[in-house]
Design goal:
single chain, 171 residues, alpha+beta, OB fold (Dihydrolipoamide Acetyltransferase, E2P), 5-stranded mixed barrel, two-stranded antiparallel ribbon, 39% helix, globular, disordered N terminus
Length: 171
Amino acid sequence: MQVTAIAQTLSLVALIYGTLFFSAAQAENLVGRVITIVDGDTLTLQDAQQRQYLIRLIGIDAPELSQAFGQQAKTKLSILALNQQATAHCAPIDPNHPVICAVTVHGNNIGLAQIQNGMAWWYRVNASALSVQAQSDYRQAEFEAKIHRFGLWDSKNPTPPWQWRHGRLDD
């Protein structure tokens, strides 16, 4: 009975938090354990019914695994989230598209943490569902990481993954 009360409380907190993160209508919330880290901006969440969701973190783009800082970004995300309980505040889920979410672990937004640690870029392309405040937080986090030369910002002219992927397609 106590577990049910905790689950209801967590669901209520997730719902409230989700509405703060997303400005678009009808965000969906998932609660579960992070079971896999794919790369610096993608993970797998498994819910209580054992359903698995491949989730791309909204508002960030981390280096590809074979790109400079790709492995470091994956390692940092693993430290932040692997085997942890998480809540994902997702843009409306469409089974034909990847699930794009803001994910929190222990109340901390792990996508924002990746930017703060210099392990990802603020990625405006998939961030339109974020609230204006969240977008401002992501933008500010990238600015701070740049000026403090955290992570990938310690290298000279790091190549954003969207440009790196484009260059690989041209080869």
